[in-house]
Known about the structure:
The structure holds two protein chains of two kinds. Chain A is α/β, with parallel strands linked by helices. In chain A, 31% of the residues lie in helices and 25% in strands. Chain A has a six-stranded mixed sheet with strand order 6-7-8-3-9-10, with helices on both faces. In chain A, strands 16-19-20-13-21-22 form a six-stranded mixed sheet. A four-stranded antiparallel sheet of chain A has the order 2-1-4-5, with helices on one face. Chain A is globular and about 70 Å long. By secondary structure, chain B is mostly helical. Helix content of chain B is 72%, strand content 1%. Chain B contains 14 helices and two strands; from the N terminus they run H-H-H-H-H-H-E-E-H-H-H-H-H-H-H-H. Chain B has helices at residues 2-34, 39-51, 54-79, 87-103, 110-139, 143-164, 199-216, 218-228, 230-235, 240-267, 277-287, 292-315, 320-338, 341-350, and strands spanning 171-172, 177-178. In chain B, strands 1-2 form a two-stranded antiparallel ribbon.
Amino acid sequence: MAQEPQPQAPLAVEMRGIVKRFPGVVANDGIDLAVRQGEIHALLGENGAGKSTLMNILMGLYAPDAGEIRIDGAPVHFSSPRNAVDAGLGMVHQHFMLIGRFTVTENVILGNEGGSISLDRRAAERTVGETAERYGLRVDPKALIENLPVGMQQRVEILRVLYQQSHTLILDEPTALLTPQEVEDLYDILQALRESGHTIIFITHKLREVAAISDRVTVIRRGKTVGTRETKDTTSEELAELMVGRDVRLHVERPPAHPGDAVLQVFDLRLKGRGNRDALDGLSLGVRRGEIVGIAGVEGNGQTELVECIAGLQKPDSGTIMLEGTETTGWNPVALREAGLSYIPEDRHYRGLVLPFSLTENMLLGNSTVAPFSKGGRIDYARTREIAATEMKEFDVRAPGPHTPAGALSGGNQQKFIIARELYREPRVILAVQPTRGLDVGAIEFVHGQLVAERDKGRGVLVVSFDLDEIFDLSDRILIIYQGKIVGDFASGKVTRAECGLLMGGKVAPNEGEPIRV
Amino acid sequence: MFESARSRGLLVTVLTSLAAVAIALLVGAIFILLSQQNPITAYRALLDGAFGDRRAVGETLAASTPYIFGGLAFAVAYRAGLFNIGIEGQMLMGGLAAGLFAAWNFDLPKVVYIPTALLLAAIAGGIWGAIAGALKAVSGAHEVITTIMLNYLAYQVLSYCLLRADGWLPVNPQLQATDPAAQNARLPNILSGTRAHAGLLVGLLVAVLVWYFLFRTSFGYQLRTVGLSKGAAAYAGMSWGATITVAMFISGALGGLGGSSETLGLLGQQYNAPQGYGFASIAVGLVGRNNPFGVVLAALLFGTLRSGSTAMQNQAGTSKELVLVLQGLVILAFAALASSGRAQSWWARRRGARFKDTTDTIGVEPGVAPEL
């Protein structure tokens, strides 16, 4: 990084030997963290490693069972988030806590309106505007939150923290919801903040982000600190190993594909979206046996509609969908599953699982009327439980047993379970949407490995992802979706990340109907 | 492992339920003291009135019977994600259908007459319930509103039939009742010298059937999936509208059976006098945790309070309203204790970490919103 803080810079935040137990879980088991003033310090760890608990302790939301916290060298004991804010700490949460119908200024000053009854809106707007200006946040203080894109809303969260005079900012997985361009902008903002003397703790589980933005990085694993490194002196491989505790292949082994006939074809699909815009605007694509096709694009460009049309959850206004040469437009999900389509949905909690149900009961989702799960309207729970147990073993789903409620599993284990279920009936076409969203490195590796294995068994795989890394890691062919159309179609390796990024942003006018080859 | 975890869960449920009853009785004792009565005398009278002799036991069983059906009706709808406030109306329609059919005095043997009357009651209650289900499926009309309205409609239909339709229906407008049921349509007495009748046995059988339906059949699975997650149900290709309509039919049918059990068992004819069992059934379902067997236990509890209340009034001079207070306290205690996670987690702590060897599978940290 260009301007690196002095190694002897005093510590802004020091946490020593932090222990936090919850019933049945030790979330933090003696974590040490030392953050220097004026640095961007990445806190790296898998989901469930204890990052969020640690930061919630720092912000005064939880009291630690043991350990010591020092802010600027002085020991502190926070009993509420207010104390932490007063000590100069501010947190930007992963899920924004903004009121949609309020303006930027109203949201920023919320909780800090000052003592008097009357509110000097104009003065507040001016202050908020100036603060935004100073750090290059470029937010209109009068804009309504609900009209702002996600990246802008995040800036409002940052503004709020700055308005509280915080000099140490904690960002919890700040890039999770951002587009690649918004991520770049966020990096610029963070650098401007560091320049002006702020200290930043950046929570992430993505190695790429550590390398891109941080000065130093502390890795935690299973509630323990496993190391702190200068970012420039370490490698992604070393960090990955620290994070998961073993060698990890960062990229899936993917022997060349040998595609066969088309198994999934979509012709000229059209669907009206909200308002006057077409959600799908004459979209066509094809997936062949034995290949993985990745659809790259910014969220909200028709991916959801496309997937739901293929999976039978929405009916297109016009167009044709064919599975292995049979037209399946408008079929319902039961018939589609019967015809060999498997669908790994984007939202595990809303679609893929019934969280209060046991894993046995979740095994039945989509299978409750077919053998061997049921016969003559009666469900064979004993057999289902056996199948669930076998699949859990095969897919390394870590849970006490098939009776465990799905909601008690970590995201990675939930996803593995869904994949196990969706592959059980030996589909011919696999539709996977954001298959590794929110998963840690180990689980991503596993999921990607499974999809490649399915490809090699001669199945057609269509992956939709907002994560370019995933698309590049996994796809034999990359399609780019923009405003309900495919605007690019490339063989793997024939397109760069930057070119994809441009097409995803609609920067290159697509030649009508003609895919752009580079 | 599966069985032991399940039985442990059951133990926790049973113990918290007992604790809830105990707390309700303790707080109730304060109220009795405040009304300058002796709680011990009052509670002794309650037990005496509910279980003291053969007649008392029979009375308790008879009082529990409608609660069993009503609680099951509520539970089935609840499992499908619906709040059926209309059990009262569904009971009335069922009771009316069975009462009229029995009053026609057909020349039928018992084994045909009784099941047919029960079936008609189930269909009548079922249709009354399915109207609300279908309205919700088609137009999104909230079932709480529509079932309440259907209750009023049921009162009026009942009044009309009993008071104005004597030209073509076997009813007695002076008595505001149907004509007495044919002997061959009456549910037989099951404990001589008491009012306990075979409706109880029907109720217990139906509870087993409802359990089997909910937890062992494909459609029961579909119903529970729809109730817990609309998104997952759509993903699995289940039709939400059809499922809730059928669920409301079944719920209403159970209510209708409950009404007919009163008409054919306890009373012998359908009167123009709603008993309010339908509303108490909501509490029975909730206290029974919407589990068919839990519902049976909760129904016995409510039946006990009901039958014991008379003795409490007569022997200890406690006002009948205090019994209603006691019922309310039971519901409150259950709501506060049995359904709160706190009592459960207290148990989990006492019994050591439940997921001891799998810390890494607990992705959701307590107090932290789960990731999406």
